[in-house]
Amino acid sequence: MSGLLAMVGGGRTMATKREGKIKVRVQPGMFESEKAVSFDVGPRTYTLIVDQADVQNDLLSVYVVERGDNEVVIDLPRDTFTSGNRIRVPASYVMM
Predict the structure, then answer these.
(1) What is the distance between the alpha carbons of residues 94 and 59, in angstroms, rounded to a whole number?
(2) pLDDT tens digits, one per residue of 54-91
(3) How far apart are CA 89 and CA 48, in angstroms?
(4) Mapping DSSP to helix (H, G, I), strand (E, B) and coil, where does residue 93 land?
(5) Region label for 85, one of left (φ > 0), alpha (ψ between -120 and 50) or beta (otherwise)
(6) 42 occurs within a structural domain
(7) How many domains in the chain?
(8) How far apart are CA 89 and CA 21, in angstroms?
(9) Domain range holding 36?
(10) I need a surface site. Which of 68, 71, 80, 85 has the fewest CB within 10 A?
């Protein structure tokens, strides 16, 4: 399998995503069932609103899409305010 996609029967399928967690700052959301979370990657701060079930003890559940030696591509549970939900972070940020 190369990267994220594999050829299967003439079509493409996504590789299986693995769950991970990243450390975040947590604030109350607008509604009781949500939380506002933020974290920094270098000079950039990402902020998003997530379901409260996605955050436990300041750890946000994410999906690891691709892992390299120094970086990891992750899918966040929701889009951030400044970009989509797929971002690249240092490998040290992700706990498996």
Answers:
(1) 10
(2) 999 999 999 999 999 999 999 999 999 999 999 999 99
(3) 16
(4) helix
(5) alpha
(6) yes
(7) 1
(8) 12
(9) 17-95
(10) 68
